[in-house]
Design brief:
By secondary structure, the protein is α/β, with parallel strands linked by helices. 59% of the residues lie in helices and 14% in strands.
Length: 192
């Protein structure tokens, strides 16, 4: 089974591109954002706690996210690969994911990072906030905080997978189909 992380800052288009890659490759899509939003919608204890962090533009604690991913991995068996979207977000999460996969004799085969300029991220998130109703995309200060949190806590994951030879930067600007084609080309020529 192949394991690919679709990576980038908030607003880079990870969810959109993950859905297209799943359709094209037949992989399973694991979105921590979707998992968390489902818990929030159900008003579970996990969802209520997660909402407090999300609404402030902060990351949900590692142990919560790692537990959700561990549970999801145990449910899967007969898929050719997995696209991770929104996970890992911290180095401890990356190390935990690597350990979980190693216990299955598997590994991350590629981290594809969508490279998008700061101004474009702000524009995309502001538009998404107007159309999606997501509370974390409606306030400029929260958006800026989310991007800053990404820069400080999440972006260092690139160095981790770069050291392993599994980092592939991809230009994340242009239309959706152009970006998708770039991702598919990297996956087909470098990963599978």
């Amino acid at each position: 089974m192949k394991h690919i992380i679709l990576f980038g800052p908030p607003g880079a288009g990870k969810g959109t591109q993950a859905a297209l890659l799943v359709d094209h490759l037949g992989f399973l899509h694991i979105s921590t954002g979707d998992l968390l939003r489902a818990e929030i919608a159900k008003r579970t204890e996990l969802g209520i706690r997660a909402a407090e962090f999300i609404d402030a533009g902060e990351l949900v604690p590692d142990e919560t996210v790692i537990g959700m991913i561990r549970n999801r991995l145990q449910e899967m068996c007969m898929v050719p690969g997995i696209i991770y979207d929104g996970f890992p977000r911290t180095l401890p999460q990356a190390n935990a994911l690597d350990a979980m996969l190693a216990s299955r004799q598997e590994q991350i085969d590629g981290l594809l990072s969508l490279e998008v300029p700061h101004e474009e991220l702000i524009k995309r998130l502001t538009i998404r906030g107007e159309t999606s109703g997501r509370s974390d995309d409606t306030d400029l200060a929260t958006i800026e905080n989310r991007i800053e949190v990404y820069e400080k806590k999440t972006k260092p994951i690139i160095d981790h997978y770069e050291a392993l030879g599994h980092h592939y930067p991809v230009v994340g600007t242009g239309n959706i189909d152009e970006i998708s084609e770039r991702l598919i080309t990297v996956i087909k020529t470098r990963i599978i």
